Amino acid sequence: MSSVTGCFITGTGACLPSRVVANAELAPQLGVTSEWIEANSGIHERRWVAAEQSTSDLAVAAVRDALDDASLSSDQVDYLIGCSLSPDYQVPGIAALVQRKLEGCRQVPALDIRAGCAGIVYSLQLARGLIESGAARNVVCFGAEAQSKGLDLNPRSAELSMLFGDGAGAIVVSGTQDSASDSQEPRLRIEDILIESDGRFAEDLIVRAPGTGNGARWIDSEQIAAGLQYGSMQGRSVILQAVRKLADAAVRITERNSLSLGEIEVVIPHQANANLLRALAKKLSMPEECIVTNVEQFGNTSGASAFLAFWQAKREHRFRADANVLILAFGAGFTWGAALCRVCYV
Amino acid sequence: MLPATVMDFLNQAAAETGNALPNRDSSLFQSGVLDSFTLVDFVTVLESECSIKIDDADLRPGNFDTIAKVEAFVERAKAAA
User: Fold this and answer.
1) Which one of the listed residues A117, A141, A341, A344 is annotated catalytic?
2) Which fold has domain A187-344?
């Protein structure tokens, strides 16, 4: 049996809460209409966790699903990388909680990445480095959110609170694959990753409290009264920067791999807002059908969204042999990046 | 003065949203002529039609809030080029 060298995405999984929250349920609390939410975000509904569900509950279910998809058992995991803006606790990190809940998982390193909604591309670069250095053979990256528990459900926060849904997605990254001529399972070889940040915009998308940047205490009654525990967003700035940075990253990563954007078959972006995804497609002069979207059904699931979109793309059989696939993500910080992959059946 | 093509863009955006183009000191956002997404296109039009390159740090919505602010911004950008 021959082998194919490189670093591969070999499995993907997801977990979505069962409760569906339609615009009609949310709109009155936010002082807007269902139509306003849909026009401004493209979102029809989102999923929210039950009170007794935590983010790590979703994450571990998604990780199990991804391991099944990769035909790996939990004792074969060498490294866990978690991305969440809404972890179970401030400390410890969510990855350690997933290690505990994942039956059979050894005492492997468990690391949280705080790169906002760009966590997927940050985690993939780290996973690739771990595999190529020989430090790990199988790395599980996951994004998981239960943002609904932290939303300000008042009209003052309508523009932000209308967006968010809960869910988790996971990806298994492994090294060199043994070749089997009859394989029916797509493997995505990671060809290149480009990640960047620009801290000048840190305050444009922020949850201030708890935090040591707020004065003598990291949270107190005054901060709570001012709503600093809720997210705040300079929406126009985020959209301007996101479209520009993502388009720029897409152009640069394709050019440095001697490809054109026309040779990208599938784009898997962070699901910020349907209007933003349309603006991105337009900026890239790419047909909207190339862009995988689930924001209509799941809302903006933050650090989980591109993981979920990846899972969805595989379920929809969009990974045709030899197709070039581009993962794009942008988040608080600002952080952003692109991962270029090629589909192979080995 | 902004190039006619830039004003054409704003007039078209106003027509498409059913709003009147505001006077030069009134907000394009508050009037409904520009929203977050037409702003993306507006910046692209400004860069091409005014032959300027807008730095990331200057890509702030406040620079594009009124026609007067856009004119001042374009002047600064051309002077700095």
Assistant:
1) A117
2) Peroxisomal Thiolase; Chain A, domain 1 (3.40.47)
Residue B52: CA count within 13 A, CB half-sphere: 27
CB contact under 8 A, A283 and B40: yes
- Residue B77 CA to residue B50 CA, distance in Å, equals 9
Per-residue model confidence as pLDDT tens digits over A181-228: 566 789 999 999 999 999 999 999 999 999 999 999 999 999 999 999
Neighbours of A117 (CB within 10 A): 31
CA distance A315 to A12: 10
Ramachandran assignment for A39, one of left (phi > 0), alpha (psi -120 to 50 degrees), beta (any other): alpha
- The token pair that represents A46 in the structure block: 């989102």
Which residues in chain B are closer than 8 Å to A279, comparing Cβ atoms?
37, 40-41
Q: What is the pLDDT of residues B10-22, one digit of tens each?
A: 999 999 988 889 9
pTM above 0.90, yes or no: yes
Q: Does A154 qualify as catalytic in the annotation?
A: no
**CATH entry, B4-80, from 1.10.10.10, 3.40.1160.10, 1.10.1200.10, 3.10.20.310:** 1.10.1200.10
Is the peptide bond preceding residue A210 cis, with omega within 30 degrees of 0? yes
Distance between CA A36 and CA A27 in Å, rounded? 9
Where in chain B does DSSP place strands (E)?
Answer: none
- Model confidence over A114-135: pLDDT tens digits? 999 999 999 999 999 999 999 9
Mean pLDDT (chain A, rounded): 95
Q: Which residues contact A189 (CB under 8 A, 6 or more apart)?
A: A4, A6, A7, A8, A341, A342, A344
In this predicted complex, what is the ipTM?
0.86
pLDDT at residue A345 in the model = 86
Closest CB to B40: pick one of A234, A235, A240: A240
Cα–Cα distance measured from residue A24 to residue A302, given in angstroms and rounded to the nearest whole number? 22
To the query of whether residue A23 is one of the catalytic residues in this protein, the response is: no
